[in-house]
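Bug report

Summary: structure tokens for Heme-binding domain-containing protein differ between web form and batch submission.
Environment: batch mode, default settings.
Steps: 1) Submit the sequence below via batch. 2) Compare with the web form result.

Sequence submitted:
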Amino acid sequence: MKTWLKIVLAVVVVLLILQIPIFNPKKNYTDADTDVDITDKYDVPMDIQMDLYGACYNCHSNYTENYPWYYNIQPVSWWMNHHIMEGKEELNFSEFATYPPDTAAVKFKKLHLVMREHTMPLKSYLWLHDEAKLTDKQYRHIAEWAKKNQNRIEAEIDAAKTH
């Protein structure tokens, strides 16, 4: 058997073995009801909340509900799991109420910027997730809401420093 054929066969065998379910990462979903979601500490209007759920929560919360069929193919699930973990590390709406005020202000500032610049959700994510697409109006409303919260928190921090 030729060397290149042996290599291709070995790669195919490894990929097939990786499809065994024991190699799948744990899905990002918990049944636990928490009291540290962003909505538990901050005033989130229902339209903003629904937009965040539809466009952000799959990667930026503890509740990824929409796993596509290709998530069950290795190494795609590892890549997607890593991407979700990075997203949650950057901003986790499910644990937002645990952020200290200075961190929350920074998170709101970043949220304002990515909404203003339309850089989230990622374009690559939007290719297969039409439900996450936001209109210009939705981007603007989320950006304005985030900026308002950032300003309010920063004012509270400043007021606490002067007392």
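Above is the batch result. After comparison, the two runs are identical; trailing whitespace caused the diff. The first helix runs from residue 3 to 18. The chain has one domain: 27-162.
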